[in-house]
Design brief:
628 residues, alpha+beta, seven-stranded antiparallel sheet
């Protein structure tokens, strides 16, 4: 029901054949460019604030551009950047477009190496200067570096201090630019190492340049520049001399998948993107493992190499619940399982009354979990029918069979997304009134006063949409009881690895817990937690514990759920309401191979995450005192 922003999506294509090969086989030299467009559009869900692409053209002559970049802001950024690229071809004749020699010599973006990026900001920083890819220029082709990624770094201040202590002065304080400068610095050293080697071999002039282009090792650059980063990341890059690389964080937090054949090497943030774009099976697409890098040399040689030792097994579970495309074979089954595992608690919430219960879902991203929940209830009703027949102790009559077998799980489309609230409306009462009409309902879908209404969402984060719109609009159906279901567990802790959930006070679970603490006169717990968080900040990061977890220990999930309902209930709504969250055990059963559950448990995979969570509570309390 609430949109979360995620940073970001990546796509890479490396052509392994001459452009003439693709012109002959596929009827266009733009095969790589077109595939990049498809990969970016298929990942549009991962970033709608900006997009960019970069291209490297091999074997250009001095004085001619060989590295191209285009970036744009806005939800239609993908269309903008590719429209701009195609503007370069509008005056080219069909004969020239089919002439590979002309293309390679004259046309921009007619290269062998493509990289694309989709951006969501989780830092609040806006503007074209923050849109990936970032470009570092130099007259030596091998020293040109273009970088993009899906990442958030938790220790960027430490890296910044290291750069400045070396005498560098980054233009912008952001993890993207600082990573570009750090990696660019190490790339310079790698080029210079090869320069010295070339001289020792007696080479001069252009022969030295060719030697450097052929011998640059991006693995060396990655090993020296990525050694101390703390965070979740997939970092992608290309160089002016034609190197391509992508590296995944050693905890496996952020995802990356790749495919290689004799024509292309491609990489994306999600598996179905590659499957759809290149018509592949699941088995043909490989996952880039934690701490590993995909490296493609200028000559097309491709290898996977370990850059950092694996530090954990913390693949993000929220990727599976919410962000990644549900068309992935495994994600689809996981989301169905999340829904099915909620059968028992939802059954309890409706008092076992399956005959008078209607099931639905909001929003569309919850549809697969809805199928799983319905599947669970169908199994329950099936067993209920068997028990009813067996309890007769005799052969049932036709009427008895008809009565028993007629019971079914009732599903309805009870809510529809009707309008989008326009941001130019800022006056509070007007805005809240309009927000309550974002959804419309299917009148008559629920038997007033008799039917329970169960509505499932993939996650409940802030609760704002529930309070301002969903509960009020569903109440117009006048159900006997309203049960709001989350396929994800209670979200209690911020994220610092690329999802727009950085402040504790944003979470309805945290706000409810703080209210319970105050109601029960347990303010000392707040003070103790604040002081403990401050004490932890004086320790080395690796020794810190997450003190925010202490706040939740005195309360059961049910107690917090009841308080959430009380806080989110709109004025005038009297229908009984219950909230059901997925359990932690249920999460782990449904998604056993993606163990990154820090949003729900507070178990951060990196020391930087723990430190920032403690700092978040300190900031929360300090802000309260400032306001008072």
């Amino acid at each position: 029901m609430e949109t979360l922003k995620h940073e970001c999506g990546v796509a890479m294509v490396r052509l392994l054949k001459p452009l003439s090969y693709y012109q002959h086989k596929y009827g266009t030299w733009m095969y790589g460019l077109n595939k990049l467009y498809l990969m970016m559009e298929k990942q549009h869900n991962r970033g709608q604030e900006g997009a960019g692409l970069a291209c490297v053209k091999f074997d250009t002559q001095p004085g001619h551009e060989y590295m191209f970049r285009e970036r744009a802001e806005g939800k239609d950024a993908i269309r903008k950047i590719f429209a701009t690229v195609h503007e370069n071809f509008k005056d080219v004749t069909p004969e020239q477009m089919a002439d590979s020699d002309y293309i390679e010599q004259r046309l921009p973006f007619a290269g062998q190496l493509y990289m694309g990026h989709l951006r969501y900001s989780t830092t609040g920083k806006r503007g074209l200067q923050y849109v990936h890819p970032f470009l570092r220029r130099n007259n030596w082709k091998a020293k040109n570096l273009c970088l993009c990624g899906n990442f958030n770094m938790t220790n960027i201040e430490e890296i910044f201090e290291r750069l400045t202590s070396q005498g560098q002065s980054p233009r912008i304080y952001s993890d993207s630019y600082i990573m570009l400068e750090l990696m660019g610095h190490r790339l310079d050293r790698e080029v210079e190492r090869n320069f010295v080697n070339a001289q020792h071999e007696g080479l001069q002039g252009k022969d030295i340049t060719r030697y450097i282009d052929d011998h640059v090792e991006m693995a060396n650059v990655l090993k020296t520049s990525m050694a101390d980063f703390d965070g979740g990341y997939v970092v992608c890059g290309i160089t002016g001399s034609g190197e391509m690389f992508s590296m995944r964080d050693p905890w496996g937090i952020r995802p990356a998948y790749y495919y290689k054949d004799d024509e292309i090497v491609a990489l994306a943030s999600e598996r179905p993107v590659l499957q759809t774009t290149f018509d592949l099976s699941c088995e043909q697409v490989k996952e880039l493992e934690p701490g590993m890098a995909l490296l493609v040399k200028r000559n097309g040689q491709c290898r996977i190499e370990r850059i950092r030792e694996q530090a954990g097994d913390s693949a993000c579970s929220f990727e599976r619940i919410y962000f990644s495309r549900g068309s992935d074979r495994d994600i689809y089954q996981e989301r169905k399982r999340l829904g099915e595992l909620l059968t028992e608690p939802v059954l309890e919430a409706v008092g076992g009354d399956t005959e008078h219960t209607v099931f639905s879902f909001i929003p569309n991203t919850a549809e697969v979990a809805f199928y799983g929940l319905v599947q669970g209830f169908k199994k329950h009703v099936h067993e209920k029918k068997i028990a009813a027949i067996q309890s007769l102790g005799r052969i049932p009559t036709h009427e008895e069979l008809d009565r028993i077998l007629s019971e079914s799980v009732r599903m309805e489309k009870v809510a529809w997304k009707d309008i989008k609230l326009r941001t130019f409306i800022t006056e509070g009462n007007s805005r809240n009134d309009l927000a309550s009409h974002v959804y419309d309902i299917t009148y008559g879908s629920v038997d007033e006063g008799r039917d329970n209404l169960v509505v499932i969402d993939d996650s409940i984060v802030r609760g704002t949409t529930l309070k301002e719109s969903i509960i009020r609009i569903l109440d117009r159906l006048h159900p006997k009881k309203m049960v709001l279901v989350s396929s994800a567990p209670q979200i209690r802790y911020p994220d610092y690895y690329g999802i727009d959930m950085a402040r504790l006070e944003e979470f309805c679970v945290f706000r409810a817990t703080m209210e319970l603490i105050r109601e029960r006169g347990m303010q000392q717990l707040i003070l103790d937690t604040y002081n403990n968080c401050k004490s932890e900040m004086n320790k080395p990061k690796a020794q810190m514990r997450n003190c925010v977890r202490d706040l939740y220990k005195p309360f059961t999930v049910a107690e917090i759920n009841s308080k959430i309902v009380e806080m989110l209930r709109p004025e005038g709504v009297t229908t009984p309401i219950e909230i059901v969250f997925q359990s932690i055990d249920g999460l782990r059963q449904a998604i056993p191979h993606h163990k990154g559950d820090w949003y729900f448990t507070g178990n951060y995979p990196t020391p930087g995450g723990t430190r920032l969570c403690n700092q978040a509570f300190i900031n929360y309390i300090d802000n309260i005192y400032k306001q008072e």
